[in-house]
Amino acid sequence: MATISKKRQLGRQVSIVGGGLSQFGAFPEKDTRDLFVEAFQDMVQNMDRGFDIEDIECAYVGNYSSDLFEHQGHTAPIVADWLGITPIPITRIENACASSGSALREGVMAIASGMYDVVLVGGMEKMTNLPTDGVTDVLASAADGLYEVPAGLTFPGIFGAIAKAHMDKYETNLDHLLKVAIKNHSNGALNSKAQFQQTVTEMMERRISRAQERGQEVPDYKTDMDFLNDPRANPWIAWPLRLYDCAPITDGASCVLLVSKEIAHNFADTPIDIAGIGQATGKPLHDSDELTSLSAAKAASQQAYDMAGITVADIDLAEVHDCFTIAEIVATEDLGFFAPGEGPRAVDEGRTARDGDHPINTSGGLKAKGHPVGASGVGQVIEIYKQLRGEAGERQVKKADPTVGVTHNVGGTGGTCVVNVLRRES
Amino acid sequence: MASEFNSSAFYSKLKEEKKLVGVKCLDCGHLSPEPRPMCAECHGFNMEWHPFSGRAKLSTFTCISIVPVKMAAKGYGRDNPYCTGIVALEEGPRISAMINGVDGTNPQSIKTGMEMVLDADDLDEEAPALAFKPA
């Protein structure tokens, strides 16, 4: 009898040959389908060699909850209709905020299986139809509805509890968290697709000038930290997390074109290979081994690194799931960039900045770029795609010739984590 | 074969017995505060009811100012945040719970490691929630 090999290798190699993002923000006039078409158009306009839409054989789209946000289920065929690609098969993947990370994984495996050569994967979320308390409820439904939600835990609440545990166990403090926000906003300020294209200093200056215009008391901020420590400017959401610790509510979509590596040069001058994929599952926080780490992130990253045959030392940059500032710090520890408890100091020392040795979230991250939850996983992949191709413009990482990038996409509070290793062929 | 160790029993037992009643795996002894028909540790299907003492320590917490719709209806919000978190039961397992009897506007006054006890005195009939308070 044959045995189970558990070798977890792709049947053949898969490359990314194009990627597109819609504008991220709040767009009352746009439906989910409109956002996805916008992302697709951005991809088509940025293909090196162009392609025929008829080449697409199959599609996977990540979407967390059009059902609850827009009262629209079964969104995938609607998207296919709006792209005019019926009757190809299209499947919606739901894994909370990791929905498009998982959609990408399905697309990779569909090509690696030999079934298809050209697969479109993406994600979309239209969140701003609902008021904030409604969005809070929808996001909370990604937690355990029997044991976490009735206890009053919200999505920011669970990450607030992680932050408190991290502060208890290590020397993490509130300033460390805010420094993540400052860094990510400084990156988002350079991203024309981002929801917030301003540094925290610029937002502080805007608040001062607005107060002056309105004849209100003018706040006496000396530094951006003064601004972030003002509860009127930065109110508590779920202590120890404040407004600037949280990713915003966002409308947006993302897509990439995956092809088998043998034909990648038909589409792109510089394809980016998917060298490793990993996905793992975790328990609710209360049942996790540690309150300061996501076990699924550790497991998924190990799978992806093993498949790619790399170690942490090979990684030039990463986009990580900073739905909250503490989530970025925990991610950089779970991915092995820093030892447990060393993440906060790495932020202090600028090691995660664009010119640091471990640049994190050059796109602005979910914090500044925006977090249309179902679109975020593929959105991260697009930033790495651009960086590895040297196309990130003003926000291009400072290190020369980056060749390996990682994405880390978390669903819920760690129930799902998807990690990808992307590599530019040398 | 239907199991009686299903999810709905957790809140009905909390209401009726004023106790946190979970399950114990008869095969490996693993305790779960959440009733479940199958042991997640050894994958066995032989469970029995297990009442927990209700004594615990506060593992971590948060004070929530931006509240869900249901909590807003109870008067919580920006000016009246509530405390919720995770407690470690004295038998070992952890569980998420509302933390009553503390000042949500003053998180610095709330200490992890605090001794807690089950608070089943004032359960909401419609939507009962597991809650602990300082011992």
**What order do the SSEs of chain A take from the amino end to the carboxyl end, as H and E?**
EHEHHEHEHHHHHEEEEHEHHHHEE
What is the global morphology of chain B? globular
Instruction: Give the SSE string of chain B.
Output: HEEEEHEEEE
Strand count, sense and closure of the main sheet of chain B? 5 strands, mixed, barrel
> What value does the Rg of chain B take, in angstroms?
16 Å
Largest interface: A-B, 38 and 36 residues
CATH class of the domain at 14-130 and 248-424 in chain A: Alpha Beta
CATH topology of the domain at 14-130 and 248-424 in chain A, what is it called? Peroxisomal Thiolase, Chain A, domain 1
Task: Name the features.
heterodimer, A: 426 residues, Peroxisomal Thiolase, Chain A, domain 1, two-stranded antiparallel sheet, 14 helices, 35% helix, 17% strand, B: 135 residues, mainly beta, 8 strands
Walk me through what this model shows.
The complex is a heterodimer of chains A (426) and B (135). Chain A is 35% helix and 17% strand. Chain A has 426 residues and is of the alpha/beta class. In chain A, strand 10 and strand 11 (416-424) form a beta hairpin. Chain B is mostly beta strands. Chain B has helices at residues 8-17, 69-73, and strands at 21-25, 31-32, 47-51, 55-64, 82-89, 94-99, 115-118, 131-134. In chain B, a hairpin with a 4-residue loop joins strand 5 (82-89) and strand 6 (94-99). The mean pLDDT of chain B is 95. The relative contact order of chain B is 0.19. Chain B has a five-stranded mixed barrel with strand order 4-5-6-8-7. Chain B has a three-stranded antiparallel β-sheet with strand order 2-1-3. The chains are: A alpha/beta (426), B mainly beta (135).
Topology:
The complex is a heterodimer of chains A (426) and B (135).
Chain A: E1 14-21, H1 32-45, E2 58-62, H2 66-70, H3 75-83, E3 90-93, H4 99-112, E4 118-126, H5 132-140, H6 155-169, H7 174-188, H8 200-213, H9 224-228, E5 236-239, E6 241-242, E7 251-260, E8 272-281, H10 295-308, E9 317-319, H11 325-334, H12 343-348, H13 365-369, H14 376-388, E10 404-411, E11 416-424
Parallel strand pairs in A: 2-3, 2-4, 9-10
Antiparallel strand pairs in A: 1-7, 1-8, 4-7, 5-6, 8-11, 10-11
Helix pairs in contact in A: 1-3, 7-11
Chain B: H1 8-17, E1 21-25, E2 31-32, E3 47-51, E4 55-64, H2 69-73, E5 82-89, E6 94-99, E7 115-118, E8 131-134
Parallel strand pairs in B: 6-8
Antiparallel strand pairs in B: 1-2, 1-3, 4-5, 4-7, 5-6, 7-8
